[in-house]
Amino acid sequence: MESSPPPVIAIDGPSAAGKGTVAQGVAGKLGFHYLNSGALYRAVALAALESGADLENEAKLSDITLNLKANFDRDAVKLEGRDVTGVLMTERISSAASRIAAVAGVRTALLERQRGFRLPPGLVADGRDMGSVVFPDARLKIFLTASPEARAERRYKQLMDKGMNANMTALLQDIRERDKRDSVRAVAPLKKCADAVLLDSTGVPAGAVVTQVLALYEERVKMAP
Ligand code: C5P
């Protein structure tokens, strides 16, 4: 008899809705693995910018993606052995990541790599298309959102905590532009799947959202252990 694959909790939604904090909190409570798929797109964007590639050249970008030497070590991301965690969070990379994410070849090249994170006892994955494309059979799908203002504020605090410069007006504008680009693109656009549960984190502390997600997951497990 074929054993069923490890369970997945997919947490999708727009940028800075708190997906990473919530996903890591849920993964920590359940002892599950964690996939930050945005970091993969960001790492591809950095590698592409460093190689001087044209961000619309699909063949070149697919090649960079397939040959990407990126590792995740807890919160740190390494590219070719170099710690790039801080650089990946800059607005320059945020914007380039959302551009290369619209290239079909990049998404295809990342598909199997993302699925490789699905290991026992389970996985919590955050991104834009975790429930719709990468793990359509996820046990629980969450669409986590918040107002653009709350998201800009969250990103502002994250950058300040890291000792980086930030400007609220520019952040809000960037969030609006990225939302638009992520939602209207032809491949894997950001949208809530019909079977995803909508959660709004505006004004809700991350800990409370983690509790909500854990309760929803418990319910699913009870329905089909
Ligand atoms: O989640 P994060 O903001 O770090 O992602 C950076 C960019 O990567 C997003 O704006 C989006 O364009 C892209 N992305 C994506 N699909 C994912 C994760 C991220 O298209 N699953």
Task: Considering the chains and any ligands shown, give keywords for the structure.
single chain, 225 residues, alpha/beta, Rossmann fold, 3-stranded antiparallel β-sheet, 10 helices, binds cytidine-5'-monophosphate
Description:
The chain is α/β, with parallel strands linked by helices and 225 residues long. The protein has a single domain (8-217), classed as P-loop containing nucleotide triphosphate hydrolases (Rossmann fold, 3-Layer(aba) Sandwich). It contains 10 helices and 8 strands. The protein has helices spanning 19-30, 37-51, 58-66, 85-88, 91-100, 104-115, 130-134, 148-161, 168-184, 206-223, and strands at 8-12, 33-36, 70-73, 76-79, 82-83, 123-127, 140-145, 197-200. The protein has a 5-stranded parallel beta sheet with strand order 2-6-1-7-8. A 3-stranded antiparallel beta sheet has the order 3-4-5. Helix 5 runs parallel beside helix 9 (168-184) and helix 8 (148-161) crosses helix 9 (168-184). It starts with 7 loop residues before the first strand and ends with a helix.
